[in-house]
Amino acid sequence: MAEIEIIREGSTATVTPAVNVVSSNVAEMRTLIKGIIAEGCSAITMDLKGVEIVDSTGIGLLIAVHNTLLKVDGKIAIINASKDLLDLFKAMRLDQHFSVTGT
């Protein structure tokens, strides 16, 4: 998928979607992220600089990635979230489970 950039450095990866994290895109994102975790990546940073919307399916993806990474002593971090997304993540208390920072 050309709309998602993945930069790997050892056991870490930065995933930068250039599309909204919504139900129509989540299946392909899930496949890509599962692949990098299976290849030994234990720290994933989701850079949301190009994302305006994260729907309930997208939230589910982030939680699933978090839970999967916990099993391998890994972690997920969200960076460059817009103010609206940052407010959403804080309202859902996701910032208590993994790092969430805004732009």
Architecture overview:
- This protein has a 5-stranded mixed sheet.
- The protein has 3 helices and 5 strands.
- The chain has helices spanning 23-38, 56-71, 83-91, and strands at 4-9, 12-17, 43-47, 75-81, 99-102.
- It is 40% helix and 27% strand.
- The longest helix has 16 residues, at 23-38.
- Helix 1 (23-38) runs parallel beside helix 2.
- The model has no long low-confidence stretch (mean pLDDT 93).
- The radius of gyration is 12 Å and the shape is globular.
- The relative contact order is 0.17.
- The chain is α/β, with parallel strands linked by helices and 103 residues long.
- The protein has a single domain, classed as STAS domain (Transcription Regulator spoIIAA), CATH 3.30.750.
- The chain starts with a strand and ends with a strand.
What is the radius of gyration computed over CA atoms, rounded to a whole number of angstroms? 12 Å
Question: How many distinct folded domains?
Answer: 1
CATH architecture name: 2-Layer Sandwich
- Share in β-strands: 25-35%
Summarize the structure.
With 103 residues, this protein is of the alpha/beta class.
List the helices and strands and how they pair.
Layout: E1 4-9, E2 12-17, H1 23-38, E3 43-47, H2 56-71, E4 75-81, H3 83-91, E5 99-102
Helix pairs in contact: 1-2
Descriptive labels:
Transcription Regulator spoIIAA, 103 residues, 5-stranded mixed β-sheet, alpha/beta
